[in-house]
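#structure-requests
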Amino acid sequence: MRLKEEKNNELESKVHELELTIKHFEEIIKNKEIQLTTQIELAKVYKEKNIISEELIKEKNKQISDLKIQISRNHNKENLEVNNNSKKIIEEFVNPLPSNREFNLPIKQTEIINHEDSDNIFMKYMDVNCIGKTTDAYMVKLPGVEKFVLPCDSKIVGSGWTVIQRRQDGTENFNRNWTDYQRGFGNIRTEFFIGLEKLYLITNAQPHYLYIYLEDFNNDIRYATYQNFAIDNEHESYALKTLGEYSGNAENALLTHKNKKFSTPDHYVDNAFNCAENYNSGWWFNDDCYLCNLNAPYVRGNDENSNGIEWRTWHFRPLKFVQMMIKPKTIK
């Protein structure tokens, strides 16, 4: 009888291992499907860009030709020097757009504008997200905020991901006030937080995935993916408005923080107990303070309940490396 029980236990253990393996491969397939969909959409956008580019090249070259004819006529009739106005026009048009089929847009800055003109065609396709970008940093301008650097990551889970937060060595202090968390802080090459106002503007412009990468001091890795991430506006204290469907192997710790407002030591809401002050960080604290806190103080080691960076549905030990990333669900 005992031998039979042992065999049954062994069989159940193997079945459980197989179930975990199948689940892991299902997650990989799901992520690959997302990447494939993104690449297909990206190809469509590139095709549209090429068409727009060719039309703009034709139009600009025509304007150059018309200007040359006009200047030549004026010269023959009156033999007058070109005035300052004409010089500016010439300088603007003497360098036609490149005739290659690659629609290379300037990286120096991105600006969203409201008026309808030819420049608007260019601005529409400048760097407002990380779709098609390599692991690097790009200058971005969004309505209502100063231009800022947007870091992209194509290494962890494929291309197209914008990094919004990173913890890796404790060099940056995350025990900040409300203004700092609202504006963003840190070094995008190491540890930083993108800023709540920017995050609100980006995630409310269109639906976004959220991907959270977690690594502990044993070099074990987990992840959590959410299908529809967005936060609310300043009036609502940038509450964690929506998460969407969860997938991953870290378990769904962030769910308990959904609809919770963001708190900092000098700006806490909903809780009589100031979780932000007691845990030295800004976060979407829940009624019990947290089940995960990725902005907590950086604590080295494997001591449980250290009040460091934690994802408690995985374990209660501090994490060594954390990266939060977002990605548009569709390409606009």
